[in-house]
């Protein structure tokens, strides 16, 4: 990858199977496997909803991800607790990664139930930095980064006006956590769930896989219908995030049963994880070839690529996603030896076909 010797075939018809055609109603969990429930809570941006999962145990409930930290979401959780949880407490909260729609209510869960989140070390650290306006939430540093990669001032202003700041969705982060590491095994309701770390979408993303149940809580690492955002950030401009993402699929593929029911954080649970890996690999191969074809003699910037990576009219929040994803593809091609990166006399970063 990329395939330069022949045209990449267009996207084939998806072979994924969706056991559930409808989403859960607000505040009403839907059982997706014995003792495992799907909860859908709202988001204020275009993804619209995030999934959380409840696993019933003898003494309480394990919750996987806790939603965006706003009142509407918390009211739905209160409804779930008061109506569906059989007077059992939340005894464990597992957060797949640091993005606000996943960690946003972790502080509130801790206050409500006295449970600290189970997270990987890097994701917990990133959440704390973001909550304090650093790292990925350093908006002015992001604006300087975008300008360096060709984004015009008026688009930067739109980003600044419309981006959702981290604390809006994550008002507080617990000051302690329980660390999850790759290969850890958790006992949940009499079954073993293995921690599998994914990369590319976030730095140390936790997925949970039960071999005997054939279930994976995949967070944002494996999504149906939409491609997980793969990002290069200003804090690590030389990162090869797309290689990290593609390598994760190669590691996961032999470990997962072909009939695995994937519980994603967005869209519906599905079967056909190996077919989904094929689709995602094809998607990125197509994008990489398009990037190479778009790079003319004058070179190309990340901003030039945004219409190719993200079609349609982007709002300010999505502009950031588009820039980071464009850089992920450009950096990948650079590391593959297909492109060269140069900074011109005005400080603008351009990529050229090698």
Considering the chains and any ligands shown, give keywords for the structure:
354 residues, alpha/beta, Metallo-beta-lactamase, Chain A, 6-stranded mixed beta sheet, 11 helices, globular, disordered N terminus
Summarize the structure.
The protein has 354 residues and is an alpha/beta fold.
Give the SSE string.
EEEEHEHHEHHHHEEEEEHEEHHHEE
Helix content: 25-40%
Which overall shape is indicated by the principal axes computed on the Cα atoms? globular
Total number of beta strands = 15
Largest sheet features: 7 strands, mixed
Q: Which CATH class?
A: Alpha Beta
- CA-atom Rg in angstroms: 20 Å
Label the structural class: alpha/beta
Range of strand content: 15-25%
Chain oligomer state = single chain
Remind me, CATH topology?
Metallo-beta-lactamase, Chain A
Mean pLDDT: 94
From the N-terminal CA to the C-terminal CA, the straight-line distance is: 15 Å
Strand order of the largest sheet: 1-2-3-4-5-6-7
CATH architecture: 4-Layer Sandwich
Low-confidence stretches: 3-9
Fold and architecture overview:
- With 354 residues, the chain is α/β, with parallel strands linked by helices.
- The chain has a single domain (30-353), classed as Ribonuclease Z/Hydroxyacylglutathione hydrolase-like (Metallo-beta-lactamase, Chain A, 4-Layer Sandwich), CATH 3.60.15.10.
- Helices cover 35% and strands 20% of the residues.
- The chain has helices at 71-84, 100-103, 106-113, 121-131, 139-148, 153-162, 166-169, 241-252, 273-294, 302-309, 316-335; strands at 30-33, 36-42, 49-56, 61-64, 90-94, 117-119, 178-179, 185-188, 191-198, 205-210, 215-219, 261-264, 270-271, 339-343, 349-353.
- The strands form 3 sheets. A 7-stranded mixed β-sheet has the order 1-2-3-4-5-6-7. Strands 8-9-10-11-12-13 form a 6-stranded mixed β-sheet. The protein has a two-stranded antiparallel ribbon with strand order 14-15.
- A hairpin with a 6-residue loop joins strand 2 (36-42) and strand 3.
- Helix 6 (153-162) packs across helix 11 (316-335).
């Amino acid at each position: 990858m990329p395939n330069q010797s022949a045209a990449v075939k267009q996207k084939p018809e998806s072979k994924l199977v969706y056991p559930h055609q409808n989403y859960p109603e607000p505040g009403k969990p839907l059982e997706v496997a014995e003792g495992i429930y799907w909860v859908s809570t709202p988001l204020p941006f275009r993804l619209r909803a995030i999934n959380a999962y409840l696993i019933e145990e003898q003494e309480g409930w394990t919750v996987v991800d806790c939603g965006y930290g706003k009142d509407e979401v918390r009211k739905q959780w209160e409804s779930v607790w008061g109506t569906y949880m059989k007077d059992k407490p939340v005894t464990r909260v597992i957060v797949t990664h640091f993005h606000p729609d996943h960690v946003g209510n972790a502080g509130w869960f801790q206050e409500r139930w006295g449970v600290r989140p189970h997270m990987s070390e890097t994701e917990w650290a990133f959440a704390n930095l973001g909550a304090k306006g650093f790292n990925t939430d350093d908006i002015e540093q992001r604006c300087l980064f975008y300008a360096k990669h060709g984004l015009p001032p008026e688009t930067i202003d739109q980003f600044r006006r419309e981006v959702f700041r981290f604390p809006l969705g994550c008002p507080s982060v617990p000051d302690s956590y329980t660390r999850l590491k790759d290969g850890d095994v958790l006992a949940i309701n009499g079954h073993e769930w293995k921690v599998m770390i994914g990369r590319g979408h976030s730095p140390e993303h936790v997925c949970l896989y039960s071999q005997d149940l054939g279930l994976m809580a995949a967070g944002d690492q494996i999504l149906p219908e939409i491609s997980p955002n793969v990002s290069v950030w200003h804090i690590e401009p030389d990162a090869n995030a797309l290689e990290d993402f593609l390598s994760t699929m190669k590691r996961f593929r032999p470990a997962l049963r072909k009939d695995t029911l994937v519980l994603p954080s967005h869209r519906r649970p599905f079967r056909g994880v190996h077919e989904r890996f094929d689709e995602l690999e094809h998607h990125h191969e197509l994008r990489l070839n398009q990037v190479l074809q778009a790079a003319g003699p004058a070179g190309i910037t990340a901003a030039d690529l945004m219409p190719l990576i993200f079609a349609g009219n982007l709002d300010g929040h999505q502009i950031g996603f588009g820039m980071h994803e464009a850089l992920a593809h450009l950096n990948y091609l650079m590391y593959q030896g297909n492109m060269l990166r140069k900074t011109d006399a005005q400080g603008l970063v351009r990529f050229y076909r090698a």
